[in-house]
Amino acid sequence: MAANHKRTHSKERIEREKEQAAQYVAARIPDHIVLGLGSGTTAAYFVQAIHDRIEAEHLDIECVATSVGTQQLAEQLGMRMLDVNTIDAVDITVDGADVVDEHLDGIKGGGAALLFEKLVANMSKRNIWIVDSRKPRKSLAWQMLPVEVIPFGGMGVFRYLRDHGYHPAFRFQDNGDILATDSGNYLIDITIPKGADLPALAANLKKQTGVVEHGLFLNVCDELVVGGDEVQVTKRHVESA
């Protein structure tokens, strides 16, 4: 009984940290911007929090979504949504992360939305990641990295990854069917080796025919916000020329 209570308390604490990070950032979003809405459970807290502030303060904020799920949530709340193809840039995007290292490089794609997330992130002038205390790590070594591949010829990519020691595994749904992303592609999860050169790994994966995108987000996050009773904020250090 005590062990079950401990697990429940831990889950409640994690959810509280997610909400704390989301509310911290939502309170600091400026008016009159185009705002990118991330995907996942932590981002969902942010969508609700920024919606409440828009309504309460009558803010002039238009939004773009990084997944079908986020789009549906925002539309249900009555938020002003834009088609990403009709704009040139996003002012700020707020999203979660699966893992983030001490350099603010991270992995995304646990929720299978990495392609749309990266497209919006690359359009954004500023990217803020909101996470709970489990997500920061010293490095990304041994972490699971999703690789999005087209269904046609996906096994060819799988064999390449297997033969090069990345321990690939297709991602499946709970019902046993292979999981399809919002774009209709498949995900292969691999393991990042210890000591891997992350920029080289990212470039090599993109070179493989059939790979659409991968979940390495390098030099993307400008500010990391970790939820807690005392929210922790880390900003990317940019060296001057």
TrEMBL record:
<dbReference type="InterPro" id="IPR037171">
    <property type="entry name" value="NagB/RpiA_transferase-like"/>
</dbReference>
<dbReference type="InterPro" id="IPR004788">
    <property type="entry name" value="Ribose5P_isomerase_type_A"/>
</dbReference>
<dbReference type="Pfam" id="PF06026">
    <property type="entry name" value="Rib_5-P_isom_A"/>
</dbReference>
<keyword id="KW-0413">Isomerase</keyword>
<protein>
    <recommendedName>
        <fullName>Ribose 5-phosphate isomerase A</fullName>
        <ecNumber>5.3.1.6</ecNumber>
    </recommendedName>
</protein>
<dbReference type="GO" id="GO:0004751">
    <property type="term" value="F:ribose-5-phosphate isomerase activity"/>
</dbReference>
